[in-house]
Amino acid sequence: MNNIVIGLLAIIGTLIVYLFMWKLHRRILLPVTLPIFLGSIVIVLILLIFHIDYDTYMIGGEWINQLLGPAVVALAYPLYQQRDLLKRLFFPILMGTFVGAVVGIMSGVLLAKWLGVEEFIIYSLVSKSVTTPVSIVIADSLGGAMPLAAVFVMLAGMCGVLIAPFIFKAFKIDHVIGRGVGIGSASHAIGTARAMEDGPLGGSASTVAMVLSAIIVSIIAPILVEWMI
Amino acid sequence: MLKLGKIITHIAVLYGIFLIGNWIQLTFHLIIPGSVIGMILLFILLYTKSIKVSWIEDGTRLFVSHLTLFFIPATVGIVNYLQLFTGEGILLIIIVLISTALVMGISGVVSQWFVRKKEMHHE
């Protein structure tokens, strides 16, 4: 009985925090006001201040976690909506996304190894360029920590949005498809939301890149990591 | 109320496809996660018109537009790893930053190159 009450409190609390942050983000459209970022910080602070264990919070949190799998399945819908673009530019988008996936995995592993980062942290970092629910499953299967993976994904998303203008300039990416694929491959849904603000075509390219990237990374990450570590 | 029922049904369909994806993964011992298999499966079902978009549309839309809500509990787990981000842990953020910059730049350049090549062929 007690667990049901705790669970419900955790779920309702998470929903309220999320909705509040979502409204705030609609007023102040900045990467640092993203509900996933501010919302997670608020809940972490609540747990720390009231000395609540993560395990206790997860009595309810686990119910929300249950929906991560279907959330990934749902991504088929935006991909389906972009089927014309997918058909027309399948090869360019696939090539960009594939090379990006390889670069993301390898650069992450190499930099972390070079700096002497602990192995379980490296495993949590490998899939940072793909959307959270896929990334945490990949990290878990490699031997990483899911919450760390979730945080690295969030950081990749936020950093990506902040640096995108400089990267486009430095790499001379001025084509709308190139920009969309770049931001979608590196910064998943957070990047895609940003790309959509600039226009529908870039947003569509970013959506396709984000979804393809999730598929590609989940296949090649275990292979590359085994080879590199 | 009718709308809520519809959304719950749609999410149940997504959940069912997720379970099928998991089953396929386990049965054939694939490395690709069951959820990703489910996504590919749903895309194929929609693309081949095996299922109607209206069977999943409202629920899926709501799901996708509030996707990050579902990421919060997993992310909050960082509360057990906070010590990692003090001192030298800042390096982790720098690794993510550099790697993200490389992914964005290189994937952008590669796809742009292929798109331009394609555009030239058509003109």
UniProtKB/TrEMBL annotation, chain A:
Q: Name one Pfam family in it.
A: LrgB
Q: Does the keyword Ribosomal protein apply?
A: no
Cellular component annotations (GO), alphabetically ordered: plasma membrane
Which keywords does UniProt give here?
Cell membrane, Membrane, Transmembrane, Transmembrane helix
Where do transmembrane segments lie in this chain?
6-22, 29-51, 63-80, 89-114, 146-168, 205-225
Where does it live in the cell? Answer: Cell membrane
Topology within the bilayer:
Multi-pass membrane protein
PANTHER family associated with the record: HOLIN-LIKE PROTEIN CIDB, PUTATIVE SEROTONIN TRANSPORTER
This chain belongs to which protein, by name?
LrgB family protein
